[in-house]
Design a protein that fits this description.
Layout: E1 4-7, H1 17-25, E2 26-40, E3 45-49, E4 56-64, H2 67-78, E5 90-99, E6 102-111, H3 126-134
Antiparallel strand pairs: 1-4, 2-3, 2-4, 5-6
Length: 138
């Protein structure tokens, strides 16, 4: 089973209870990127994987300590699974995440609803986008 997780949004934000859960139950591996598009959904981002772009989604790769248990917890946070509202907000998929030392297959949560009319995060970097959005004069 794949025991790496690529995160690119609110799970990277300090103070998020699920980010705190990950910090206790995972080990940071490296930064990574994935070819695709990132959208501002409102309170969080949504990633769409596509080869039809020159853009990347930037984030971090973590090694899960207890993969099945860790994924159950994060599935719940991401609105993924049969007990969640349908259609699920996100789907969990495996993708090759690019790193400085080669590609790593990792779980990623991809946005599962239409993106029509949603603002695209052109940089592909949610953390930087949020900093710019919160800074005065932006």
């Amino acid at each position: 089973m794949i025991d790496f997780l690529f995160i690119y949004g609110t799970l990277l934000q300090p103070g998020n209870p699920f980010a705190n859960y990950l910090s206790r139950n995972c080990t940071y591996l490296s930064p990574g990127k994935l070819k695709g598009l990132l959208y501002d959904i409102g309170e969080y981002p949504g990633a769409i994987v596509t080869d039809n772009t020159d853009g990347y989604i930037y984030g971090s790769i973590f090694k899960l300590h207890h993969t099945e248990e860790n994924l159950r917890v994060i599935d719940d946070y991401e609105g993924y699974g049969p007990e969640q509202d349908l259609p699920n907000l996100y789907i969990r998929s495996v993708a090759p995440i690019e790193t400085d030392s080669g590609a790593v297959d990792a779980w990623i949560y991809l946005y599962n609803l239409p993106t029509n009319g949603l603002p695209q995060i052109a940089s592909g970097n949610y953390a930087e986008y949020i900093k710019q959005k919160k800074s005065p004069g932006s």
